[in-house]
C-alpha cells in the first residue's frame, strides 16, 4: 500500500476517537480506509481489525458491563449484522451512506440542543437500537454510532458504557467477519495489515483510556454526540464530493 505510514497514523487516530466516544473505531476507520482500499476490502479488513480492537477495550475496561443490555441489544444486533452482511453485495452503498450521514447529523443535533430529551430504558428501545446498529454495521461496516446513541440514552457510567459496547461489537464483528469472508471481501494481499492494526488497536485504546481518565461523565456524553455529528458531516461530504 502506498502511504502506509499515513494509513497507520489515521487508523491510530480512529482507534483513539472510537475509544473516547465509546462506540468503536469503525465509525472513523471505515471512511479513512475507503481512501486507501476498495469498499469491499474496507468491509473485510474493518471487521477483522475491530475484533482485536474490541478485545483491547474489553481488557482495558473489564470492570463493568450491563448484562441486560448485552442481551437486549446484542442478540438483535448479531442477527441483523449477518443479514446486512449477506445483502451488502446487492445494495448501493452510496444511498445507504447518505441516509446514515443524515441520521447521525439530525439525531446528534437533537440530543445536543435538547438535553432534556430522555429515551426510556425499555427492552423495546434496546431491541430497536440493536437491530439498526447491526443492520447498518453489516451493510456499511459501521453501526457503532447508532449503538452508541442507544447506550448513551441509558446514562451508563463511562466504564460500563465502553465495556458493554465492546462486548456487543465483538459479537457483531465476529459474525460479519465470517460472512464477509464468504462474500470474498477478505483478501490475502491485505492480511499483512492485521498484525499492524492489532498493535494500533492496543495503543489507541490505551491512549483513549488515558484521555477518558481526565474528563467527567457529562463531558463524555457530549463528546460522544459531537463525534457522531462530525462523523455524519464528514461521511456526507465524502459521498457528495465523490
TrEMBL record:
<keyword id="KW-0812">Transmembrane</keyword>
<feature type="transmembrane region" description="Helical">
    <location>
        <begin position="69"/>
        <end position="90"/>
    </location>
</feature>
<dbReference type="Pfam" id="PF01925">
    <property type="entry name" value="TauE"/>
</dbReference>
<feature type="transmembrane region" description="Helical">
    <location>
        <begin position="126"/>
        <end position="146"/>
    </location>
</feature>
<feature type="transmembrane region" description="Helical">
    <location>
        <begin position="96"/>
        <end position="114"/>
    </location>
</feature>
<keyword id="KW-1003">Cell membrane</keyword>
<keyword id="KW-1133">Transmembrane helix</keyword>
<protein>
    <recommendedName>
        <fullName>Probable membrane transporter protein</fullName>
    </recommendedName>
</protein>
<dbReference type="InterPro" id="IPR002781">
    <property type="entry name" value="TM_pro_TauE-like"/>
</dbReference>
<feature type="transmembrane region" description="Helical">
    <location>
        <begin position="220"/>
        <end position="241"/>
    </location>
</feature>
<keyword id="KW-0472">Membrane</keyword>
<dbReference type="InterPro" id="IPR052017">
    <property type="entry name" value="TSUP"/>
</dbReference>
<keyword id="KW-0813">Transport</keyword>
<dbReference type="GO" id="GO:0005886">
    <property type="term" value="C:plasma membrane"/>
</dbReference>
<feature type="transmembrane region" description="Helical">
    <location>
        <begin position="191"/>
        <end position="208"/>
    </location>
</feature>
<comment type="similarity">
    <text>Belongs to the 4-toluene sulfonate uptake permease (TSUP) (TC 2.A.102) family.</text>
</comment>
